[in-house]
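Need a sequence for this fold. Nothing fancy.
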């Protein structure tokens, strides 16, 4: 470290600012529990971004934000190899930082208090940590739902990026007003978390517990269908008389400042879980339970569901569903959801996972009308019998079922599956005994089975 003995006051002040400023960005970067954990992980050697992400309950954009902060301060180096990012600690920066910390925390002859013509007590009294009022805390929360493939929709991703930009813009304001800012980003994955955080709509931005939006307005989010087939309504942001699917940065900056200066309605509102969220969590549980069944289907005993080389997957079979007009690719949207569509969604997900040699295609009159024209047989049946003939089930180019979806037990026969996972066998009753009404083969009409 630099010695300041014999220097005058101006020289000392200039050099001290340079000396401390060099490490300010690094200390700010480490003032986050997730980034501290990442540094700890990298102390064992280079890691891929995916390996780091596995240890955290955060989204990919959030991890990218943390890694960008660590790289910008020089503590971490990033290297892109193909599609993957690899990160490692910068040894030189680490050594300089450790030397800096040892120096400023040890008793030494060239301390700033011993420099000539420099009254340490006089010059630093007004800036002393003991004399300053405690830092004010500002908690900024970003709450969002995720698709069942653990991805985040584009609307939520864009909102998160806008929030990061707004915070960057406001950093000088926070520093000037002596605010210590904590940013919490949380995926709401259960009803318990939703109620705990009084979560109303995705995405939500709060400052010290107050939403930057005065009320909740929503619209259907097409992005949420792509990952899991479970559409959900996402929040719409209104700013300067215009509606946005994701808020502009100016709106977030304005919202944070309004709450910062108390220009908001602070009266708490009674919380009630919305119907939109109830449906979302119900679908999430349904599909997650189905996937859990797939993972424990007993492949070790010869199921062969993940063995692409086994006899039951020796040839590729194509299953195509031609369906009536629907508002989304799966029909799983809105408040009232058809249980039959939920059953078909779960069955198709099971087939995709369990049998790699089955190609599944779904077309409906709204999203893919051209496909109904391409298939001559389907087009003829539709012309002759009308839309009442839908859905039409086609296996390897041949129409096998019309006017209904296959029952769960029929999938094996239609696709020549010698064995399958229990995800397609969720009802313990037989057609002769009783019925659950789920379309799995029962006929008497009761709906008290676990498969519904």
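Here you go.
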């Amino acid at each position: 470290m630099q010695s300041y003995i014999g220097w005058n006051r101006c020289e000392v002040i200039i050099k001290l600012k340079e000396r401390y400023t060099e490490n300010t960005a690094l200390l700010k970067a480490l003032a986050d529990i997730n980034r501290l954990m990442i540094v700890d992980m990298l102390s064992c050697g280079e890691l891929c971004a995916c390996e780091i992400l596995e240890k955290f309950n955060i989204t990919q954009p959030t991890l990218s934000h943390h890694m960008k902060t660590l790289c910008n301060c020089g503590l971490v180096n990033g290297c892109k190899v193909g599609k993957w990012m690899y990160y490692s600690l910068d040894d030189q920066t680490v050594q300089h930082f450790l030397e800096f910390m040892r120096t400023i925390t040890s008793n030494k002859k060239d301390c700033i208090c011993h420099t000539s013509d420099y009254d340490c007590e006089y010059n630093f009294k007004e800036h002393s940590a003991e004399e300053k009022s405690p830092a004010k805390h500002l908690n900024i929360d970003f709450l969002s739902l995720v698709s069942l493939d653990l991805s985040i929709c584009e609307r939520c991703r864009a909102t998160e990026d806008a929030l990061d930009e707004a915070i960057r813009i406001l950093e000088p304001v926070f520093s000037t007003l002596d605010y210590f800012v904590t940013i919490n980003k949380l995926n709401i994955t259960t009803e318990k978390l939703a109620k705990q955080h009084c979560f109303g709509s995705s995405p939500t931005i709060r400052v010290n517990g107050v939403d930057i939006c005065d009320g909740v307005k929503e619209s259907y989010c097409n992005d949420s269908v792509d990952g899991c087939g479970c559409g959900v309504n996402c929040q719409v942001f209104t700013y300067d008389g215009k509606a946005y699917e994701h808020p502009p940065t100016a709106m977030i900056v304005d919202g944070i400042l309004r709450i910062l200066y108390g220009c908001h309605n602070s009266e708490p509102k009674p919380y009630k879980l919305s119907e939109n969220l109830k449906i979302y969590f119900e679908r999430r549980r349904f599909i997650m339970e189905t996937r859990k069944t797939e993972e424990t289907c007993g492949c070790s005993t010869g199921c062969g569901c993940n063995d692409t080389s086994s006899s039951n997957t020796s040839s590729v079979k194509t299953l195509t569903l031609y369906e009536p007009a629907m508002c989304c690719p799966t029909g799983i949207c809105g408040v009232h959801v058809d249980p039959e569509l939920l059953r078909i969604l779960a069955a198709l997900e099971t087939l995709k996972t369990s049998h790699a040699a089955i190609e599944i295609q779904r077309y409906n009159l709204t999203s893919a009308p051209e496909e109904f024209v391409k298939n001559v047989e389907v087009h003829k049946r539709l012309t002759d019998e009308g839309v009442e003939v839908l859905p039409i089930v086609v296996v390897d180019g041949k129409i096998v079922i019309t006017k209904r979806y296959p029952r769960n037990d029929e999938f094996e026969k239609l696709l020549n599956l010698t064995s399958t996972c229990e995800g397609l066998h969720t009802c313990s009753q037989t057609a002769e005994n009783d019925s659950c009404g789920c379309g799995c083969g029962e006929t008497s009409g009761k709906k008290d089975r676990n498969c519904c």
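For context: The mean pLDDT is 75.
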